[in-house]
């Protein structure tokens, strides 16, 4: 069990992070696209598509963070030491986004101000999530098991690139969510935005992939050592196939669910490529999941709670999306 418990927890945390990205990503994307709303009524319509389910999505972020603390305390300490500032800014932006989401529906004279606050909070949260991702992938300087960088050690051209990439990725996810949930002029606007956003996302994925060989986090070594390349090659091939299918789906009226599903596949494939690349390191380039793990007794104890809790989270997530499935009319929603 000393071998398998860290592997199980690595999978659990990865699943939690992926679920958060997929489910809260489109809500952040709605905020990023908020300035493109023609008027306050159209912004109401955009926000009403996510109003019943948006706050439950952040449960997955809590699961990922709490799981990291419980199962991999060394990695938790290192990541928080190195990325304290971007993590703090991300959390502040998420709170700001949430407050703006709720206040805007109750405000009158200040409603446009809260709309811009919703957009700014979403944009900042998405950007800092991308910066955190880039900093982890790029690797952290360690000395005797401790973080050896400064407060701004996360700042690099690569982390700024991944920050911008996540912003455009979430915007694409938000546009395809609107295609799924709306009709009429708002849906046409979403289709118009989705096409250039998809091209930008593909370009960003290419830039990030081209940059990886120049990083010192051993990611490319994982891809090319031994015969791994032939096992992992389907991932970039599937990304290209998915991009082509998404382009066709966005162009076709009447296939409203397909663009959103294919955009989700974009994120899943990118996440899979990342996990394959950094395995078995939790904090590249030196700390593996076994080196970072807590004692097996601690991991086993917390795993019992997870077995009881995870079905509940999955159950109410499925139920809430099922209850509020279908199109959202322009004159209905949260008030």
Characterize the structure shown.
With 335 residues, the protein is an all-alpha fold. The protein has one domain. It is built from 14 helices and 4 strands. A hairpin with a 3-residue loop joins strand 3 and strand 4. The longest helix has 30 residues. The radius of gyration is 20 Å and the shape is globular.
Keywords:
globular; two-stranded antiparallel sheet; 14 helices; mainly alpha
Question: Could you give a short description of this structure?
Answer:
The protein has helices spanning 4-33, 40-48, 59-71, 73-82, 84-106, 111-138, 157-181, 185-211, 219-224, 228-232, 234-251, 257-278, 289-292, 296-323; strands spanning 142-143, 146-147, 281-283, 287-288. It has 335 residues and is mainly α.
Structural class: mainly alpha
Tell me the Rg in angstroms: 20 Å
Q: In terms of per-residue confidence, which ranges show pLDDT below 50 for 5 or more consecutive residues?
A: none
Overall pLDDT confidence: 84
Please indicate the count of domains.
1
Helix tally? Answer: 14
Helix and strand sequence: HHHHHHEEHHHHHHEEHH
Measured distance between first and last alpha carbons:
51 Å
Major sheet attributes = 2 strands, antiparallel
Helix content: over 70%
The proportion of residues in beta strands is under 5%
Outline: globular
């Amino acid at each position: 069990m000393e071998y398998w418990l860290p592997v199980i927890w690595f999978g659990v945390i990865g699943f939690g992070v992926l679920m958060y990205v997929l489910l809260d990503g489109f809500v952040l994307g709605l905020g990023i696209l908020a300035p493109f709303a023609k008027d306050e009524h159209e912004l109401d319509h955009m926000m009403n598509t996510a109003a019943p389910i948006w706050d439950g999505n952040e449960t997955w972020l809590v699961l990922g963070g709490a799981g990291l603390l419980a199962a991999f305390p060394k990695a938790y300490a290192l990541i928080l030491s190195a990325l304290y500032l971007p993590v703090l800014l991300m959390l502040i932006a998420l709170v700001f986004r949430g407050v703006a989401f709720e206040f805007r529906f109750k405000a009158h004279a200040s409603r446009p101000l809260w709309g811009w606050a919703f957009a700014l909070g979403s944009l900042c949260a998405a950007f800092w999530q991308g910066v955190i991702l880039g900093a982890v992938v790029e690797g952290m300087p360690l000395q005797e098991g401790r973080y050896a960088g400064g407060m701004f050690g996360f700042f690099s051209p690569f982390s700024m690139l991944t920050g911008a990439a996540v912003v455009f990725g979430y915007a694409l996810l938000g546009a395809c969510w609107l295609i799924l949930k709306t009709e009429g002029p708002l849906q046409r606007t979403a289709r118009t935005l989705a096409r250039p956003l998809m091209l930008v996302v593909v370009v960003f994925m290419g830039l990030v992939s081209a940059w990886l060989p120049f990083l010192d986090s051993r990611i490319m070594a994982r891809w090319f050592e031994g015969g791994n390349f032939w096992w992992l090659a389907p991932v970039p091939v599937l990304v290209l196939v998915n991009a082509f299918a998404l382009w066709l789906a966005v162009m076709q009226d009447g296939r409203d669910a397909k663009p959103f599903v294919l955009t989700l596949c974009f994120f899943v494939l990118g996440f899979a490529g990342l996990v394959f690349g950094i395995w078995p390191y939790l904090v590249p380039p030196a700390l593996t999941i076994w080196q970072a793990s807590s004692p097996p007794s601690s991991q086993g104890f917390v795993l019992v709670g997870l077995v009881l809790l995870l079905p509940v989270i999955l159950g109410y997530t499925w139920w809430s999306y099922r209850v509020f499935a279908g199109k959202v009319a322009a004159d209905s929603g949260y008030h």
